[in-house]
Automatic annotation (TrEMBL):
Top-level taxon of the source organism: Bacteria
Lineage, broadest ranks: Bacteria, Bacillati, Bacillota, Bacilli, Bacillales
Protein name: PcRGLX/YetA-like central beta-sandwich domain-containing protein
Family matches, as Pfam families: PcRGLX_2nd
Species for this entry: Gracilibacillus boraciitolerans JCM 21714
InterPro entries: PcRGLX/YetA-like, PcRGLX/YetA_2nd
Residues of the PcRGLX/YetA-like central beta-sandwich domain: 3-89
């Protein structure tokens, strides 16, 4: 079993606890926010807006914790036999930097996937 947390070192205080490795059944606990860390601080840091703009005469309310998030990604990969170092490196790379699928640019033009585009054959 391979357990990965995307950007593990950068996402401090995430952690992984593994217990009972010498037994027939081990336990693995993945913490996106470690239980040993202080709680995430969601306090208001000020009571005034820091963007001096307004909409229809109403001040913007930007000094709130509304919308604060800490997004995490975890992946579990199961193997029927012990993976080689090459396989582990492959999966670790895939889990850290997922490949992006894309088409030939002409396909986007033909299907108008990005809206209407004037295609000038002589200028591209």
């Amino acid at each position: 079993m391979l357990v990965t947390l995307k950007d593990f070192w950068q996402k401090h205080p995430s952690s992984i606890d593994i217990d009972y490795l010498a037994n027939d059944q081990a336990e693995c606990t993945i913490w996106f926010w470690s239980n040993q860390a202080k709680a995430m601080n969601l306090e208001h840091y000020t009571d005034q807006t820091h963007v001096e703009s307004a909409y229809e005469g109403f001040d913007e309310l930007r000094a709130t914790a509304t919308g604060i998030a800490n997004t995490n990604e975890g992946t579990i990969t199961l193997f029927s036999e012990a993976p080689t170092d090459k396989m582990l490196n492959f999966y670790l790379q895939i889990h850290q930097q997922k490949p992006l699928l894309h088409c030939d640019p002409l396909y986007y033009v033909e299907t108008k996937a990005c809206g209407f585009l004037i295609y000038l054959e002589n200028h591209i």
